[in-house]
Amino acid sequence: MTHMEKLAAIRGLMRQQHIDAYIIPSSDPHISEYLPDRYKCMAWASGFTGSAGTLAITQEFAGLWTDSRYFVQAAEQLSGSGYELVKLVVQHAPEYADWLAEQLPKGAVVAFDGMLASVALANTVQDKLMPAGILVKGEVDLLTPLWEDRPALPTAPAYLLDVAVTGESTITKLQRLRQEMARLRVNAHLISSLDDLAWLFNIRGSDVSCNPVVLGFALITATAATLFIDNTKLMAADRAALEAAGVVLADYESVETALRNLDGGNALLIDTKRTCFAMRSRVPDAVTVIAQTNPTTSFKAIKNEVEIAHTRETMIHDGVALTRFFKWLEETIGREPISEISLAMQLRQFRAAQEGFVGESFDTIAGYKAHGALPHYKATPTSNSTLQPDGLLLVDSGGQYRTGTTDITRVISLGHVTDAERTDYTLVLRGMIEGAATLFPKGTRGYQIDAITRKPLWDHLRNYGHGTGHGVGFFLNVHEGPHTFNAAAIDVPIESGMITSIEPGLYREGEYGIRIENLVLSITHQNTLFGSFMAFETMTLCYIDTQLIDKSLLDAKHVNWLNSYHATVYERLAPYLDEQERLWLADKTAII
Q1: Whose CA is closest to 382, among 79, 143, 52?
Q2: What is the reported pTM?
Q3: Looking at the structure, do residues 84 and 169 belong to the same domain, yes or no?
Q4: Does a structural domain hold residue 144?
Q5: What angle is formed at CA 230 by the lines to CA 227 and CA 235, rounded to 5 degrees?
C-alpha cells in the first residue's frame, strides 16, 4: 500500500470502531528513542523516518508533529503521503493533544496503542482531553491488522560483558538497587528501558540498530530478580552466569502475567516516562504504584573508574580512525568522486579497523553545504550530494566499541570559505570552549552549562534550536539520561563520573550548518571556602579545523585552550600513527 492507502485504511478502521482521532507515537513497549523494525510505526504509516514525532489522525486531517531538527526532512518525506507537517513550538511537547482538544466535540473518542505510549504521555493526553469531555482509549492497535509484512521481533544473539570491562558485577548492582528500593519503601520494581536492563545485568545485544541492547523487562523484588527475555539468545554459559547471580530467566511475553499476579501488599516502583501505558494497565488496582525515575538510570550515568579508563582508551581508537579518515578525505577530494553516502561508508571502514569496534553509535550525519543546516540529516539516494573542493562539510558520527561509546562532530573546510562562515564557525567554537573550560560549583544543573555555552552566540544575536549536550552511555545508548545540557529546568545535578556531550551549533537554512562536539567527563576540581568546584575533562581526541578560525573573535583563554587541546590530541594519538599520519596531524594541531 502507498502511504495514502494506509491512511485511508486506518481511517476505515477508525470509523468501524467509532474512533474520532488516532495517535501514533514514535516509540515501542520500552519507550526507546531508536526502535526495532517491528515498531517503526510512524515510518510505516507516513514515510517519516525521524526519531522524534507523533502522528495524529482524524477523518479530516492527518498531521505529523515534530521539532525544528526535522522540519526540512519531514516536509520532503511527507510529500504525497496525506500527512501535513505541524511544527512544534516546544520540543517534545504533546501539542497535538491541545489541538485535538480544540478540534473535537464533547463525547469524541481519541485512541492510541498503549504499547507505544509512556505512562507519562498517556496521563498528559488524558489530562488535556478529558476535561473537554473527550474519551481516551489506550488499548487500541489499528496498525497490526493492516501491516501485513510487519517485521517479527529481533532474534539476534545477546551476550554478557565481563566484570573486567564493566567494573561492577550484576550481584553488587542488584544490591545497590535493592538498597535504593528499601529507601523508597517499595518492594517491587519494574524496569522496561533497555539501557537500564543492559547496565543492570551487564548484558548487550543488537536488537536495536546502533544501540547494543536486547529486548527485555525486569521485575526486581527484595528476594528475586526476574529477567524477561528470549533466552534462546543467550549461550548456556551466560544463562548459567545470570542464574549464579540470582537472576531468574523467563519468557519475554510473560512479564504481563507476572504484573497481573502481583498481590495487593506490593508497592511497585515504575518510571512513568520509560514504562508503556499497557504495562501499567496490567498492574492490579490493589497494588500501590510509586512513580519515580529508575534508580539504575542515575547509577549508570556515573561511570566507575574501570569504565572511565576504558573510555579513555576507546577515545584513542576513535581518534586514530578519525585522523585517518580526515587525512584520506583531504587527499582524495577533487580527485575521486565522494558523496555523502560513500563518505559515511568510508568513515565506518576506518572505525571498523580499530580494536573492539562493534558498530556505529548512530547513523552518520554527513551534511555538505546546505545539508549541514539540517541537524539530524541522513543522506538518501535522492538527496545524496557529491562533494566538491568548495564550502563546508559537517560530519557528526560515533562508534560503539566493546570498551565505550563515542560521539563527535567536526566541520571542515573543503575550500573557498567566506568571511561569514569563518565568523559563525569561530563563535560556535568559542561557545564550545566556554562550556568545556568552565569551572562550576557542585550541584550545578545542565541548563546552567547550556546558558554558559550559548553566551558567545547570544552576544552576536545567534542561537541554535537543539540542546547543548546529552549524557552518553558506556558501550550503551549514545543518548542517555537523567542529565542533559539544555534550556529545560531539569533538576538533575552534574555529578563526577558523568560523560556528556558539549555541542553548540549554528544553522543557516539553505546555506550551511556548523556544530562542534566533544565528549567531556565531569570531575572534581577543587574544594574551597565557597564549596566544592567541578570541571570537565575533554575525552574526545580529534583535531578541530583551524583554517576556519577568525582569531580576532577569540580571547587569549580560548586560544590557549585550543592549543593545549591540540597538544593533547597529538600526544595521545601519535604513537598509533605512521610517520606520514603523524606529520599530517602535527600540521593540523599546530599552535595558532
Answers
A1: 79
A2: 0.94
A3: no
A4: no
A5: 90
